[in-house]
Protein 1
Amino acid sequence: MRLYSRFDITSIKDPETGEQYDADETGAIEVPEAFGRFLHGQHMAGKQAWEDDAERFDRLTAEEDARRRDPASLYDLLQQRLAPAEKADPLTALADAAAAAHAAGVDLAEAFAHITEALDEQGSEQTGQQPPAPAKKAPAKKAAPRKPAAQ
């Protein structure tokens, strides 16, 4: 049975057999089925201590999805990408940051909407003013009623 420690344990000893099991380069520890079932049921600080491949995949995927949806992390990603290029052309730096975010699977339209919203909120907190309301479309002109055609 292949298990991953949630607490960075890289080596474990089976108390019944005395055999030592070490983690591979991915962090997984291959243990016999009976010992694996025992470990899989263990909890530390209210958290499951060991997870199998499917549980690890689900957890990492959920964490990545949450990170991508968080406006603060999107803003931080853009800040990290823009920081080295602050002295360079701002449009080039922004294009590089957008390309990196797109490569990471971030929906750019959604990301910029969240960032704009966060910046508006941040600006209103600093100035104590409400952010400007979005522009409203002008009402559509009504067509003049048609006269019936003479027969």
Protein 2
Amino acid sequence: MHHPLIGDGQLALRKRVISLFQNGFSIKRASNIVFVCGGNEATDMRPLFCAYCDQHMTDFEIFMPEGAMENVMAGGADEPFDIADFEELVGELSHAIVIFPEAPGSFAETGYFAAIEALAQKTILALDFNRQRHDSFISLGPAKKINSVSWFQPTIQLDYSNPRFEDIVERIRRVRRHHNSKTLQLKAFSEMTAYELSAVIHEIVRVMSIATVDDVMYLMRGFFNAHVSLGKVQKLMSILVGAKSLIEIGDYGHVYANPQKETLLTTREGFQGVWSEIRLSLGELYLGAEVDFQKLVEEVHDAD
């Protein structure tokens, strides 16, 4: 079920959309995603910390990668799935990376993130002081490396039996997010940062009301002269789903922008009317769309 915008006879409207993205948006300078690594058991620190953040740190998006990884692997990307590449992409998008070394996977992630300086700079390592000796592998290796470059240093010694999660939240807030914006510039796809691309993808979905990966790819090929990586777009969309910035709907692979989450792009002065006119034109176009498409759009409008 293709989006009506990419159908025959809509070239003029697509050109208006492309022009809006080329000229009409500003982008916030920093992400609000916090990537959390650790165990999966109900009593592990990671799920407990995420639950704490739902109540006490609502201005950040807490991201656990499992759901997004499943979404990527099920979606038939044009390149093999590589968990290291995926986690590096998540790291690029994150404001901070919180690691609780409490399970085999998180032990590996500690070493992996420590080895990549750009990711180590964003890492907050929360060790269980009841278990980690000063001469342990993590203390002597990854923790030392992370401490040498992290913006959030030093390593947090946390009592896993009675954790003070507010200490981690304080560290996250210690590095201030830049709330000001800059003009969005659409460069070559390969020159766009993961953060810029994720913001563009999110706004495409907002403009279109609902969209599939194929719909997003169609427009992005117009933005970037066809030189677009399906695998990267799919991974970024899956990360946005994992962060609950995009929500899956229906049985055809559609997503819509969560109205409860902040947008990364804002319309520049003088372009708000253009955005509204495009949305009005799309609304008129949807009146002649397939019945199933109309039902999905109605569900999204009801969710607003």
